Amino acid sequence: MNLKPSTHYNLNPLSARPLSPDRQQREVTGTNISRRFFRDKYPGGEQIDIRVKTRWKKILAGMAALTVATVFWLPCLHFLFLRPLSTFRQEEGISSQARQLAARHLQLWNDPVLREAELEKMRVSNAEWDFMGRSYLVWSLANMALRDPAAKPLYLRTMDQIIDETMRLEKQEGMYFFLMPYAKDFPYVMQPAHSLFLDGEIALMLATRRGVEEKPEYKPLLTERVNAMVERFRKSPKMLLESYPDQCWMFDHCVALDAIKMADYLDGSDHSALIRDWLAMAKRKLVDPKSGLLVSSFTTDGVAFDGPEGSTIWMVAHSLQLLDEDFARDQYQRARKELGAITLGFGYAHEWPKSWPGMPDIDSGPIIPVFDISAGSSGMAFIGAASFHDDNFLTSLAATLNFAAFPARSHGRLKYCASNQVGDAALLYATTLGPLWQKVKTGGKP
Amino acid sequence: MIKPDLMRLRIFQRAEFLSARDLLQRAGALSAMFLAVHLAGLREFTSVLNGTVGSVAAGWKVSGFLAIVYILLYLAFVILVPILILAAVILTIGKRWIRNEENPSAKPDTNF
């Protein structure tokens, strides 16, 4: 049988160039029996056979190369976004990322037009975010003032501006201004209506401001709000106060108790029995038995609405640090085990433990399928990881932030496009938290 | 006559499917598309990821669509483009290695 091709074909179907003698030889060497059969039986079969086979070989080679490249690249991807932890958070002083985030927030509070546009975008989805963005910024600036005394006057000025404007809006527009519309659907169980969400966070804003430097005008405002909360705690049969009509939140209770604890520190009052009793009740009645995590919302009778949620528990663990350090650490470790995850070097958090699946809502944010990543829980996980010095998790969360939150830097200011003002303020808090809690816990001079 | 001159460059000529040049062309096209949407400012719309509208004026539907376009092209740029480039390098090296194995005296073929 004559194996020598009668003509010399270029195997590239898009090119009509003749093959080199070397390549002709290689093609002949690769001939096999089926190819011979096909070529001998059909006129012109040789051309088609060689082209098809070579084309398939090239496609398979290309696919193999793509597979190898994928297997190599995916585990390396996170290195592109990994930064030393010190760029995100430092034990002392202020990290570069904190400075840039703070610069962006200070710009918003100095530019009413810019602030209005930013707040409007958030209020379309959730009026609470407008309020919480203020709270997180004030708490962050308090910690920054303690970390960087030289910049304290600027931070205090901004804190006062935020507190005054927030209290003015609350007085002028009513408490519903910062609540979601469903707050008006039913009457509050306890009258007159109060939202622990607003009272607790405003009280903690006032307390943190005074914790950095005393402001006499804020003392009666804090005392009045704390006394009102304490009175309602005592009046409530189960020690559970509403943020929305017959809807109570763990987040708000812990923040409110922090404010009461801070008031004790600042003004020498003593509500330790109230705090102790509330914690004992929560451990007894508000813990999900399967995960051991505190549930996130419940009725005034203590019936759980939602189970444990990432968007709540990370901040709750941080807040508990001021109230019960051991319980706080226990909650963080359980949350880390049930909700935290690291895949291919990227850290993230789920909204719900496997034992209590839930539906996406305004707090969880959209859930990214397959990995069950919750934007809300992942953002708040920074606060938990920073509070408990979980550096490995925090570093991997920061890598995810750089990868998937779309940082935008301009003139020394940083914002995350995939976030919003409240998200960035919570991140700023994660980069700066620590000194204020430390000051209160060690009983330093107010 | 810029267009014909450009078209004469090999990088703009149609390459064989899954050849090294084909992979590089796809990587280049994805990079160019990502650069275009990035320069157009579509990054701002990614706030839909946390449930915040990218632009109140544009509304949810338009903001969501622009966010998806940006996110897909961004993921293609940081995940797919390096894979395509790495695969092209692997193919080129593999091809040269096979050629050298078959015919050590053959001149290197740059027509990948």
Protein model, in words:
The complex is a heterodimer of chains A (446) and B (112). With 446 residues, chain A is mostly helical. Chain A folds into two domains: 21-77, no CATH class; 81-441, Glycosyltransferase (Alpha/alpha barrel). Helices cover 59% and strands 6% of the residues of chain A. Chain A contains 18 helices and nine strands. Chain A has a three-stranded antiparallel sheet. A two-stranded antiparallel sheet of chain A has the order 4-5. In chain A, strand 6 and strand 7 form a beta hairpin. In chain A, helix 6 crosses helix 7, helix 7 (127-147) runs parallel beside helix 9 and helix 11 (250-267) packs parallel to helix 13 (310-320). The longest helix of chain A has 32 residues, at 45-76. Chain B is mostly helical and 112 residues long. Chain B has a domain at 28-102. Chain B is built from three helices and no strands. Chain B has helices at residues 2-8, 20-39, 59-102. In chain B, helix 2 (20-39) runs antiparallel to helix 3. The radius of gyration of chain B is 20 Å and the shape is elongated. Chains A and B meet through helix 3, helix 6 and helix 15 of A and helix 3 of B.
